[in-house]
Design brief:
10 helices, 5-stranded mixed β-sheet, single chain, Alpha/beta knot, 272 residues, 60s Ribosomal Protein L30, Chain: A, 2 domains
Length: 272
Amino acid sequence: MTGGVTRIEDPDDPRVAEFRRLNDGAFRRQVEAPGPFSPGLFVAEGWLVLERVLAARCTVRAVLVLDSRTQRLTEMPGIGPDVAVLVADAALLAAIVGFEMHRGVVAVAERRRLPDLGSVVGRSDRLLIVEGVSDTENLGALFRNAAGLGATGMVVDPTSADPWSRRVVRTSMGHVVGLPWCRAPIDAALAAASGRRVIALTPGGGTELGEVAGDGAPVALVVGAEGPGLTIDALDAADLRVRIDMARGVDSLNVATAAALAMWHLFGRAYS
């Protein structure tokens, strides 16, 4: 696909093939999957997400934009002559992607090669380890909260959702491309975190969060999915189990909300 601005008139135009059926998970996994000659693709939806993708110098292959917003796009830093800018009206854009796109812009970019586990953990003294979070919006919110609350690295286990999926990237507000992260089994992540204080967040007993010192010392916070929570192996490998006390009749918080409270407390306001 060549760069420059092109008007799209037909939803079956082959130049928009990578933008089709964005809300069809099975179809998108085929489109975006890595191959022998490609690192795989990801979708960046919305202006702020696209700004972060461009600022991170990801390789953007093409951008599909609402015709009334073309000038805004072409004036963005990072939209060079090698980026294909595909312009469509609202009805055609919706026909291509599969839903009404109120943000008016979506890009397809190449996935980055991930750092290895040792690199991410070795450079992170405020680490978030995620186990079994299959909900894409929860995982995206975890990335956004981690970036905002001072995490310096994340490890996402293979049973969690794909961090490159559209909803994760969108909900993270693009922080998936800025925060160092990798994929690794939970046992390997916990072994690599040795030397840090490993704290497992769980509603099932343990020390109340407010009683745990957030003194800036290296720490790894481990969180799991709502409902099943962390596996027993992950809980047993932690140095400390921590809970968040809540009002009577409420048994747990959304995992991203709970993790945000814990990171705010444990990471020592490293961002301030």
